[in-house]
Amino acid sequence: MRPHPNVVQLYGISTDGPNPVMIIEFCEGGSLDSKLYKARVNLSLKSQLQLISGIAKGLLHLHLNKIVHRDLAARNILLAHGKPKISVSDAIFLAKFIILS
Q1: pTM of the model
Q2: 16, 33, 71, 90: the active-site residue
Q3: How far from 71 is each of 1, 36, 78, CA to CA, in Å?
Q4: CATH dotted code for 10-97
Q5: What pLDDT, on the 0 to 100 scale, is given for residue 93?
Q6: Is-contact 89 8, C-beta < 8 A?
Q7: pLDDT-based confidence at 12, cuts 50/70/90?
Q8: Which residues lie below 8 Å from residue 30, measured CB to CB, with a gap of 6+?
Q9: Which residues are paired to 84 by β-bridges?
Q10: What mean pLDDT do residues 63-68 have?
Q11: Active site residue 90
Q12: How far is it, in rounded angstroms, from Cα 38 to Cα 8?
């Protein structure tokens, strides 16, 4: 899948140790749920709409690549440079690839 500004980039997977490790893009803003619930940040309407728009664009990119996330939640939205990025890395085995015949 080609990179998209609203989808966390998966760089690779290592199976060298006892547990598989995923190498993903660093998102310095943490998760959306941390920002909303733990830090109790109040977002302006403009910020809310920008978040929703970015999430929708990321989902569209996944769907166009025949991927259904199946675990979309605030904990799976990471923030990088103030923009939302959908993380499929922690739910990679929940993501469903659709095969069209």
Answers
A1: 0.82
A2: 71
A3: 19, 18, 14
A4: 1.10.510.10
A5: 46
A6: yes
A7: confident
A8: 78, 79
A9: 79
A10: 88
A11: no
A12: 22
* 31 strand-pairing partners: 78
pLDDT at 95: 47
Residues 19, 96, 88, 77, Cα dihedral to 10°? -140
More confident residue, 52 or 95: 52
Residue 6, classed as helix, strand or coil, is: coil
Question: Which phi and psi (to 5°) does residue 60 adopt?
Answer: -60, -45
Residue 65 identity: N
Burial 11-38 (b: 16+ CB within 10 A, else e): eeeeeeeeeeeeebeebebebbeebeee
Encoded amino acid at 2, one letter = R
What is the torsional sign of CA 47, 82, 4, 23? Answer: negative
pLDDT tens-digit readout, 22-47: 888 999 999 999 988 887 888 899 99
